[in-house]
Fold these 4 entries.
Entry 1:
Amino acid sequence: MKAGFREREHTADWALEVWAPTFAALLREAARGVEQLSGVEVDEAAPPRRRLLQVLASDPETALIEFLNELFYLRDAEGWWYRPETLNWDGQTLRGTLLGYPLRRMAKEVKAATYHQVQVRSTAEGWRAVFVVDV
Amino acid sequence: MRLRWLGLWLFVLAGMTGCDGGLLKARSTPTPTIATSPTPLPTPTPLHVAGMPEDVPLPPGAYDVQVQRAGYLVIFRVEAPLGKVLAFYQQMLPRYGWQGDPADDRVVGYVATLVRAKPSGERLMLNLHYDVRGGFVVVAVSVARP
């Protein structure tokens, strides 16, 4: 399975469907999808800032939503947009490193990823998720 | 002529007072009639929902309960301010054996996270997200058991 994402029709907020061969790749793709949908522009010429990521999550749904909300939190707190560099979820904690870039602008602010209607499934071909973001 | 005028006045006066009221009643503001259509209310959630961890209480008014992983991940909504739902869990969780310091609870903007544990090794994570537009809190209850 190749990794990818697409926007799904949703009444008020944005819904994203994401798929990838591994769970780490699924999280990476979810971050890429949110970045693209919200029209994030970063200064890629600036030296990136590396950060450790640690998120408590005993299920994949929590890992996905809390991972995305950590990105939104760092964006708001620091004014930098972080992309996942390494990710590893052991079933209890999501750990990894993030690479941050100064945020130049974004077309639409995503406030948070929500648990409402979140779905994460492991299939024979890989992982698939649907989640809603609050805009 | 006088009798004719008197008769006319009596007729007008009788018309103003009507048969069942009086002059005052005829002049009083009529009671407004408000046309309403029944508004569907959220179905009240019973105290225990199938799939909901038995050692995690549901706040009053919880609805739209989605059991993602029975006994492990349950998501629902509550029409209440974030602080009220947070206070409910900070108060109730110790009664169900969950230990943790409320001072460590993380509240950032419209999102709150509570982590609790039991001596037996079980871990509870509660994520509360206040939806500003909808005026409700989405609660995700995630339990890890050894």
Entry 2:
Amino acid sequence: MQELDPGVMLAVLLEMMGIWFWLLGLLAVIGLVSFGWLLVRERALVASRLVRAQAFALLAGAGALVLMAHVTKSGFTDAGGPVDWLLIVAIFAGGWIGGTILIYALMGWWPHIPGHERLAALFARPPPGSLKRSSRLPSGRAGS
Amino acid sequence: MSYSRRALQKVRLPTQTGLARREFLQLGAAGLAGAGLLSACSPRPDRVQTSAHIVIAGAGAAGLTAASRLAQRLDGARITIIDPRVRHLYQPGFTLIAAGLQPARYAVSNTGSYLPRDVNWIEAGVAEFDPEANAVVTSTGQRVEYDYLFAAVGIDLDYDAIEGMDTSLIGQNGLGSVYHSPEAAAATWRELDRFAETGGDALFLRPATEMKCAGAPLKYTFIVDDILRRRGTRGRSELTYAAHNNVLFSVPIVSEKVRMLYQDREVDTLYSHVLKSIDPGARRAVFDTPGGEVERPYDFINVIPPMRAATALRNSPLAWTSGPYAFDGWAEVDRHTLRHARFPNVFVVGDAAGVPKGKTAASVKWQVPVAIDHLAAELAGTQSGSRYDGYTSCPLITRLGRAMLVEFDYQDNLTPSFPGVIAPLEELWISWVMKTIALKPTYVSMLRGEA
């Protein structure tokens, strides 16, 4: 394409995003490779996992819109024409699809990550200190 | 992404890097689209072997872009750039600073960071052009001879031409001036921030001379209107825009659109009003009009001074000697090649060029490759068909969050980069997005010769 030289586009994107270009690019590559590898390994898309990933990824789509609003110091309420709504949909869709791929891959590989049980336990259980406090509080209050 | 056949036919840069005429803004959108990044890049043109000494006078947007592209295009050339300024200013960002959206440092970077390693930088001003002897004289008295000259010395802001104007008072007592510097733009914002709390009479204007980015005075009027509305003080404010002639913008269709928008936003419009003097203490401005002097009080004003070619150029044989560009000393160049009319080894690019339009960064983006293509062809013993048709562009902010992407050429044609997608006279968020996040990276890439 004569008008949009990819090398020029790359230069502009690098200038625009700085280190985030490489970080997000790395994340995208990791997500895609993990997702693809999972598909090959399982030989199918797991419907229940996909639906949950899509649901969680709605937050990623919303996050993409919030990020765009933040960096442009504006928001989707400034939309003035159809192309603006297309852009908003594209931003949301980018976040949602990217989020779905990442979350699906993470959910699929989660049981294979070393130490995942300990990690899960960290999120599932409150810290020991808070357990002690919470176990004391009712009796303390009852006694006062 | 599709382009009209007409647009493609107008692209005439046969030996360039496959870059297109309206690429400056297209790149911004392309950056947003982010498609096709990893595919093969277009091949660069063959480098031209030469031992010529090329001097670039001025290290602003045009000078730095020329330095980068000359270094890429020529093999063996000696390239010297002359400019005392260590600070490089991203001038399209001044409006965002004066709108309170960016700090002053947003527009400031280091000149040296854009210079190719093998370009010799003389940190001095250009005091004199001597094209008969193929030489320039620096402010330190150094005489630098050249085989080819790129004059990119830009514009002088002539605040002294406004009686009573004192730039040290910018940011005080309702006096704003966005063009002066990033610091003055920030000071203008502080004064606008104060003014917006109470409202009052706000005055906007433009000079009667050629000026850089003629859309900037208009967009700042829109911005102030929006800020007052957001603060709830628009109802007790009067906004007045004083045009220097009988239109609001040199492109008729754009002028009419702005007139309609000003009417909608209840901005009062005056025509044939040129700021003559100002009394910052009493907050009064005096305009020259066909009916004589008219005095107007203000509570907030954005002063934009007359603009002229840099002094060294204005006083040199490079300036026009007759016609509309002679008085302010703009360089006499062929409007399509940027080659000087009387000194063929001289090219003048950027604001200093005496051409009908295009004192913007977007014009630089297109002018410089054309001029360099003609130089490279001459050095290679061939001919270049590259042609600059006056393209320039202005993301004309109409409120915070929306802008009109106005692109046009020498003939006042609208030249939309995205026909059928981004309408040129429509207030759109996507144009605002391009202005706020894509233009500066594109500009910086341009300085580095990468865009």
Entry 3:
Amino acid sequence: MRRRTLLTAAASALTAATGALATGCDSGASARASGRGGRLTYGVWDVYQLPAMRKAAREFERTHPGVTVEVQLTPNGTYWTKLRTACTSGTAPDVFWMNGPNFGLYADSGQLLPLATDGPDAVVEPSAYPPDLFSLYHWKGRQYGAPKDFDTVALWFNKKLFERAGVDPPDGTWSWEELIENARRLTDRRRGIHGIAAPVWAQENYYDSIAQAGGWVISKDRKRSGYSDPRTIEGLRLWVDLIHRHRASPTLQQLTDTDPRQLFQSGRVAMMQACSYDAATFWEDRGIRDQVDVAPLAHGRHRASIIHGLANVVYARTPHPELAREFVRFLSGRKASLIQGRYGSAIPARNGTQEPWTQAKPSFNLQVYLDAVKDAQAYPISANTAAWSHKEQQWLARAWSGHEDLTDAAHSLTRAMDQLLAQEGKSGS
Amino acid sequence: MSSDVTADAAPGTGAPAPGRPSGTGVPAGAAAAATAPGGLDPAALRRRERRFRYRDKWWGYALIAPAGLGLAVFYLWPVVQTLYYSFTEWGAFGGTEWIGLTNYRTLVGDPEFWQALGNTVVYTALVLLGIPLAMVLAVLLNVKGMRGTGIYRTLYFLPVVTMPAAVAVVWRWLYNGDVGILNQALSAIGIDGTFWVSDPTTVRFAIAAIGVWMTVGYNMILLLAGLQGIPQDYYEAASLDGAGRVRQFFSLTLPLLSPTLFFTTVLSVIQSLQVFDLVYLILGANTQAGLTNPAYAEGQTVVMLFFQKSFFDNQRGYGAAIVCVLFVLIMALTAIQFRLQKRWVHYG
């Protein structure tokens, strides 16, 4: 009955918690009984990466007799809700995937085990990964995550639309001015074609342009919002202007009704900025595979893009901390990274293991995603990133849609974000 | 309804508690026994009756125990807990701290809550407009000798048994501002359609239209059942008295259907105030667009806000306060409706 949805929603967390608690006690007991060997659980959310993860787990089992690793898939939609509940009741997987926006929450409340970065017990070597990716999983002086993969941002373009408009394809030398100018020239309103898509996307769009403009999202001590900084606003203005002033992008309403990727794939948008994992989407679409390619982002005051990536972390209350760390060490190692790259789903984080990923889709110039690492900036996070990133979406959408002046929206966002950051400092649990 | 049986019998027997000496129940039971039909000795009948009562009662409790326990553990106890948590600050990983009325104070000053409440009330009011529509459909389908009623009934009922998620996906395409069927149809008659679910001025109406579409079949079936329960002789008598079709509808059909209408109204209000999945998906909150729909603020419902605060922003205590207010609101509105029914509902 739909009538019960409210109660069900309210109850679900609690009942899930009690259920997990009951089963958790069992598994904990049996694991302890089995002694030194033991059974590890590994929590992941991406079904496309499941084969690679299973393969890596089998490999680990082969080199560690008596150890079994169970890869547990929870779809992205419920992964975080479930994980939070499981952590509360002490039953989370021994090792699991972590991302930037959620990391602060788990690290700050002591749900993760620190990983040694030097000495004989070192689990991860800092020098083996892009520094801004490595530092993403650093919290209050300790390392909690071993980078698993990364995603950077680049500019995708439709060669056919460029040809028709007589515009030279992007080659990595473009400035913002050239990006705007070319987006305008590519726009053909009669045919319903726009030069570029400017959705309110953080990692793909405005975090990059903020960095390119020399602005900042959050202060180094994670206590203040940077949204009132004129340079930050300049970074935001690029996108608002592309929609309203230059009319080179579909409006926010159009981009809400139809996903920008779909507009790009159907040839109604000539350019879009996308993360490395979107390469698979464009590759799978045989209708456009030969028509599109990818180039480095345009530069503003600086050349910059955002790097984000997942990490493997160890649950603080795992019954097998040593074994779990050993597994994480293996997953971040060369062998497991190469397995991951060969399956082609995500760029392995470990330096020198990325070639197989770029070669998996030969007609795309995927090298640009690897080159982006050298100008990359870390994804901005705090202890409760989700709370202010929702404010970010809500306020910026008002500016993007034209309902509110950008500067006003940015100031309102600063106030809301500062308030949430102050709360983080207070609770500190 | 089985509850009627016990309700009727209870005053006569005084419902003796189990294990009590049987003698004490006699004075109260006497009244019931005196009116008992059949030729048996009243005292014997009384004894037998009481024996059955004991046994029946225990069987009754035993049989409802599984459902009752489930209800208590999964519905009632969480309600109590939710009420408790609404007075606490609940960290993302547990660890509650009693903060008294702070959550409720925040809520009163939170414009987002009031906006969401307003949206929800507007949605509910608009969905209630579907009841007259369901009434018209039910009357039409009740016309004798009409062909294809089975097909129409099924067609109107189909949306009721369709998953809201599927409904949302399809309607998002219908409403699409660029390529939606709705705007294509409108452009054929020279109207330039808007972005229905990402335009702040139209979003509530667009969503409520789906709400009506999804509930009209259910209400129609209930009303149809109510219509068919009205004896045909009333209409014959009315036409003999010279009442036309219109007069018959307002003086006969409407009063006799009022209990069903009351039921559908109460149910619609309760369901609409809790609307979540349909609106969540229509606004695209599950996609990468997230909360950036320009009409998000104008579309968000109370339960969506609760979901957002509790499960994404990690403010579960505050989320609990939101649903507690909604709970009280639903209770109050239902109570008011039961009060008002005396003015317009006719039983029999």
Entry 4:
Amino acid sequence: MYQYNDFDTAFVKNRVAQFRAQVERRIAGTLTEDEFRPLRTMNGLYLQLHAYMLRVAIPYGSLDPAKLRQLAYIAERWDKGYGHFTTRTNIQFHWPRLSDVPDMLEALSEVGMHAIQTSGNTVRNVTSDHFAGAAEGEIEDPRPIAELIRQWSTDHPEFQFLPRKFKIAVIASEADRAVMKSHDIGLRIVEQDGARGFQVWIGGGMGRTPMVARLLRDFLPRADLLPYLEAVLATYNRLGRRDNKFKARVKITVHENGLDEIRRQVEAEFPRRRAVFSGVDQDWLARIEAAFITPSLSPRDTAAYHAARDADPVFRSWCDTNVAPHRRADHGIVTISLKAHGQTPGDMSAEQMRLVADLAERYGHDDIRVSHAQNLVLPHVALTDLPALHAALKPAGLATGNIGLASDLIACPGMDYCALATARSIPVATGIAKRLQELKIEHDVGHLQIKISGCINACGHHHVGHIGILGLDRGGVETYQITLGGDASESTEIGTRTGPGFGYDEIVPAIERLIFAYLDLREAPKETFLETYRRVGMTPFKSALYDEAAAYAAE
Amino acid sequence: MARAFTPKVVTANALVEGDAVYLAADGTWVRHLCQAELITDEVRADARLALAQAQPTVVVGPYLADAVAGADGPEPAHFREDFRRKGPSNLFHGKQAERAAPQR
């Protein structure tokens, strides 16, 4: 992966020193909170319900063992021994003291990490496919492009005070594992007439006005990427609504001005931008690409893997759910579930981080990814090493075989931590997972994505959950709205609300009724929840939610 | 008709630690809601909030939160304040853990 050069290292070290002085001035009282807030948010520091929260960037979700070990060290030295992986593939520490944050940033800088632009109205962490470089059907590894965008957007003087935050995702295959069409800009690397370039999608997003991104350019030549992105951002910077925070995202700019008008203005700006790019960006890209060489994978015998599958049904089941096909038949892509039943989705202890760092060294070519679904991925593991890997994960509580199943829920921190939240999401997630474990039905249920947000900002991606849950405050009571039919894949769709919400004590039974309704309605076990919903529509699910609830209440 | 004043406490986050703090009757900041002053008079509420706002090197974002009288001091009137008072519900961290720890 990309390694910092002297410039990067000096830049991050300088930023740490700058922030250290800002924190000292805030504590001494020479900076007011109003003056300090934009400075701390530029450095990923929030103030939440119980403490400060430091959000650390994990560019395109890529980690190596040294980075993960340093995150473990930070978790133990300055936090409460754990971190929380987020839906934007970042990690959050929920308990730092303000005076310790500069030391935490210093420790991050030692391994080429930082918290810059993980907050504020800037270009945020660029995300990508967590199977990048390993997946079948990929044109190329999209991460060098993501890294190019990261370098270009970091501290870009023109785009530090955009109308609102700006999120970019890059993928390079038809399969979308990065929720690309829910980003302000989604880039898909494509090939046309033998040349590489980009599909450019704009105006996707969740939040209070969910929208699926629309195609702005069907083919952008590869070398034009940065000037074109500058043209898009400059257009947004000019047209974006600064008068109303709720209408400030680029999705609203596109909606209000129309896609054609946005395209016209972007295309008008583009030649001016391109004229000042000297080609230095392409030289940089070549250097970045050289740092992303996929490990050379020696051919490995798979007999031991097949023997272990035959001998151990638990191992076999884990492989079937958590190991995805690698582009090499003798390797697999392993997803390590951070969703043990009853555990907080995305939380990981320092000991678990160190173990995964060790295992990535031993079996995974030093490559670790964070997925937007709040799990970790070892993208290059020989099948023959899987039995040993599984055995090592098991005692650490990291061998839950539930990837893609109903207990592999996404949940934001919700009102257990977040100052913006209107209700809790974590206990709803753990309540559903524990109930599924009691019922022992999730393997029968199959692929089902449940996503939970604790407020309308939708960090828990509820709009694109097959079952989405949104926690709200209704008259001083935690209330949960359900949506059905959302889709986070390449066929992105926004879910539809079922009707009135449910109280905190009612939401887990309500989800259970939906799942049993699906089992009754499906034509065959291979028909997924989403396929059944698309075939039968909302009515029978609504009936299960509301009529059955009324029937139980009358008993 | 003006709405009747409902009892309040002054609360904020501590500047350095970041945790929830409450203004006590003696003007000091305390860590637990039950130790806070329950204010039943609007004029005093405004004065106490002004006192809190004048301490930007001690606290961040002071505000008046609805509260009710309980057997052991003020109790939260809203679930958000209940979480701030206790800590998260997924892990035994925050105020609930501090209260359970032996007092030094």
